[in-house]
């Protein structure tokens, strides 16, 4: 018996909010941002939207605050448990605040990178956003309880095609999943990908040889589910190790980005942007 998949409403809502806020920022300053650096000086909003202006500088400080808040996800991961909310919700908010911080930082710079510290901050933020998006993709591929899902798929197949559960299970077990230590390095995790993908492909082929081609609609659905789950389970430990090592890389760049952002904010404060708070 299959269960309907829940629609991930929170990421959709947060994505729409991000698009709406970006559109609003563009609408607010489009006539200014599309001008050349020389022509911007004559624009009536130049003093407001330039990086050191009240609005432009405000974008930067809000982005810096979001960067600090964004790292609270790392604290939540250390705490564990469920009393602080679902990790999936925290991750969705983590992605949203990271993308919105990057958006605000872009508008803060007025789409120009004229100083070394600005270039370093932008580069570090871009790397963090990129590694974070890839990490979010890997998180979606990460296994849940694949062994349990495999048992359920075998039970489902037994229901629609009785008497063949053991044969199907033996065919899968004859091609064991690739074992990758949870603390494996990123290089080792990446190098293991072809191996567990190969096992998954061979499991599909082995099941296809056992299951007859002439099947009704329900049997086709159960067979397709079993093949997918068996292929996924072949890379369970590999995906877990890959996600964990990629998180470490993302965390490293996030800390470097935080340092560059704090340096950027400190330099801006020291050289006279304190008037914003006076």
Question: What report would you give on this structure?
Answer:
This protein is mainly alpha-helical. It has two domains: 9-142 and 246-277, no CATH class; 146-234, no CATH class. The protein is 74% helix and 0% strand. It is built from 13 helices and no strands. The termini are far apart. The model has no long low-confidence stretch (mean pLDDT 87).
Summarize the structure.
The chain has 278 residues and is mainly alpha-helical.
The gross shape turns out to be elongated
By DSSP, the count of extended strands is 0
Oligomer: single chain
Q: Quick check: average pLDDT?
A: 87
Q: Report the order of strands and helices.
A: HHHHHHHHHHHHH
Number of separate domains: 2
What percentage of amino acids are in beta strands?
under 5%
Continuous helix count: 13
- As a whole number of angstroms, the C-alpha radius of gyration is 25 Å
- Summing up helix and strand content along with how strands pair, one would put the structural category as mainly alpha
Low-confidence stretches: none
> How widely separated are the two ends?
65 Å
Give helix % range: over 70%
Biggest sheet features = none
Which secondary structure elements does this structure contain, and how are they paired or packed?
Layout: H1 9-33, H2 37-40, H3 46-49, H4 54-70, H5 72-79, H6 87-108, H7 116-141, H8 146-160, H9 165-173, H10 186-191, H11 193-210, H12 217-233, H13 236-270
Helix pairs in contact: 1-6, 4-6, 4-13, 5-6, 6-7, 7-13, 8-12, 9-11, 11-12
